[in-house]
Amino acid sequence: xxxxxxxxxxxxxxxxxxxxxxxxxxxxxxxxxxxxxxxxxxxxxxxxxxxxxxxxxxxxxxxxxxxxxxxxxxxxxxxxxxxxxxxxxxxxxxxxxxxxxxxxxxxxxxxxxxxxxxxxxxxxxxxxxxxxxxxxxxxxxxxxxxxxxxxxxxxxxxxxxxxxxxxxxxxxxxxxxxxxxxxxxxxxxxxxxxxxxxxxxxxxxxxxxxxxxxxxxxxxxxxxxxxxxxxxxxxxxxxxxxxxxxx
Length: 247
Prior knowledge:
By secondary structure, this protein is of the alpha/beta class. It is about 30% helix and about 25% strand. The chain has 9 helices and 7 strands. It is globular, with a radius of gyration of 18 Å.
């Protein structure tokens, strides 16, 4: 799918960079799930699951894990990476599950793509009363191991894309019948080779969605700015959770 200016729609761009997404994106610490009040016997959904970075952690913890991902290339890697999960084709605005089927819905690094009233209504529909919605984000912590010139160029590229603000997302949840969000965080670390760092850059929507010639030029430019070596990234997993309010 493309926009009128020839760019791929950003949310669809992950499909063309599925292998880079799997290789470059950071994982999630087990301790992040300790912050969410969901018991081990729960049935849970990873919504917008990508290649299953969070799904594989959920599968080690909960009795039944489902994963919904709209992009076929990502689903293929997800199904191979987490064979115990039930992988479904669907979207946040059209979750292929019956009413009140779930104890919890998790969205990792994804809520900004579907922070809208239609998606929140769907999430509420598939959650049981008092069911949990958990939103997770990996945030970089200083000091960054990346060269200053590399970081500056990434920052320029990122500023070309507008994302849903946290305040907008919170307002959508409140309108959709969810309680006030509670938040906490866990520190962890991602160790990456140079090729992994470049794979991460290739996977982000604000690079992956560009026309192919421009995308290749940008990635070559970033490669010239990044020396060989191992990069250790201090990260903070931000976890916000709420419950579906009882009617």
